Amino acid sequence: MSKITYTSEIKEQAFLFWYECRNDSKVVRMLKSAGYDITRTTVASWRERYDWQQRASNMDMKKQAAQDVSITFEESLFLDLQKQKDRYDAYFESLEAGEIDNQAMYVYNQILEKLLNLKNKVKPESKKQHGLDESSLEEIKRKILGIE
User: Fold this and answer.
1) DSSP label at 28?
2) DSSP label at 73?
């Protein structure tokens, strides 16, 4: 029986399937559904020979680093906009009473809008319920107001 050689594309596809599930048997089923008849033993040998575990760890670290950079960029942008807002605050304080700078007000409002959008993206706050809940309201009606 001759040894079957597989293309690097098939091996790469097998790795990508393995990266998704980290299970040789599932990889074999995925490959079969993609039209390849490859055994679990072959997949296991590729996993060992090409050190898929290390490669997957490297990919995970790169994904995490990319997410960290994206968060860091947004936080950096937030801080830069905050500095710009502080400069406009100082500028508005320096204006004479009644003096208006419409262009500066427009830019200031744009900065505030961007700051709010970024704040929600970087640190989304949970929505808090304001006011009384129904049971508290009913208790106040009964005990304090005497309404049944």
Assistant:
1) H
2) H
